[in-house]
Amino acid sequence: MSQDRSLQGIALCALAYAFLGLQDAAIKWLVADYSVFTILFWRSLVVVAACVIAGRMGLLRRAWCSLSRRLLIVRGLLSLLAWLLYYTAARDLTLAEMTTLYFSAPIMVTLLAALILKERATSRGQWVSLIIGFIGVVIACRPSHRVDPLPIALTLAAALCWAFTYIQLRQVDLTTSVLEQMLITNVVFVICMAVTLPWTHTPSPTPAWLGMLAAGCVGGIGQFLLFASFRRATATLLAPFEYTGLVWAFLLSSLIWGASMDVSLIISAVLIAVSGTLAMLSARRPVSQGVVGAECAVTQPLYPAAADVQPVGGAEGAGVEAALEPESVKHRR
């Protein structure tokens, strides 16, 4: 039974990163013609609506009274900056390049944990993983092949912002549920983007508008599946499967845009994946509660108590109406 649940968790994790990859592909397609601010507004509005439908008024009250509300608002602003940088760079980078550079965030987390949390890399494996990851990032940047380094700089800056948000997750109160975190973060997105719309809005025909809503839907499904996967399998078991996001990025980049499989980029992606997995295996203590691709910590319960659950559709069958059990995590970044 335990093995079956672990296999389900692995399958859900891989599927989650497929949906998250589709979200990135949809937004990359849209940013060629439409404002990043407009796209993120509609994408985030969909996630807010989904959270409110799932949590009802009780969720709104708990989010407003959350002990971590101010921290999550600050974290939401930093996450928003990361998204804006990331999708601005999407105009000039392939989906595979974007995703490979994005997965450098865990390497930055290790360095930031040493600077901010005073958590030092204590094993030879951690130092080796950092060196491997750094080499992978340098190969992915390919400075000698780029005329304009700005898109790469934007993506790395986005990864650095995400690394800071992973560090901030260490300070989120454990009683703050996943839905509360997602709601607060995306409300910050919606408010900030709404303020900018008078200056940044680009008129969007119905197909483009529907594409923005679809990006929010597939991104929300990806988050949902990611959290469900961590209910069925340990974080340590799922850690290597986070890097299926790189596989999906390469496949989507090739299928949608006809991008060729760049050998150097494939090598860099493999090195970064090996680096992250090796760091997880050799770590003696967690450096963060974050998960690549997650907008919030997954050690908290989805709902704070079973009494507060309002089953939506068949959600209870997917295992999200009970609380997510906290677990000891060594790879969460």
Secondary-structure blueprint of this entry?
Layout: H1 2-31, H2 36-65, H3 69-89, H4 95-102, H5 105-116, H6 124-141, H7 150-168, H8 178-200, H9 206-232, H10 235-238, H11 244-257, H12 263-282
Helix pairs in contact: 1-9, 1-11, 2-3, 2-8, 2-9, 3-7, 3-8, 4-11, 4-12, 5-7, 6-12
Can you summarize this structure?
The protein is mainly α. Helix content is 68%, strand content 0%.
Detailed description of the structure:
The protein has helices at 2-31, 36-65, 69-89, 95-102, 105-116, 124-141, 150-168, 178-200, 206-232, 235-238, 244-257, 263-282. The two termini are 29 Å apart. It is built from 12 helices and no strands. It has one domain (2-318). Residues 284-290 and 303-333 have low confidence and may be disordered. The longest helix has 30 residues, at 2-31. With 333 residues, the protein is mainly alpha-helical. Helix 3 runs antiparallel to helix 7 (150-168) and helix 4 runs parallel beside helix 12 (263-282).
Major sheet characteristics = none
Total of helices: 12
Order of helices and strands: HHHHHHHHHHHH
| End-to-end C-alpha gap | 29 Å
Tell me the count of domains. Answer: 1
Shape: globular
Computed over alpha carbons, the radius of gyration is 19 Å
**Could you tell me the number of beta strands?**
0
> Strand share of the residues?
under 5%
Identify the quaternary structure here.
single chain
* Helix/sheet category: mainly alpha
- Kindly state the mean pLDDT as a whole number? 77
Uncertain segments are 284-290, 303-333
- Helical percent range? 55-70%
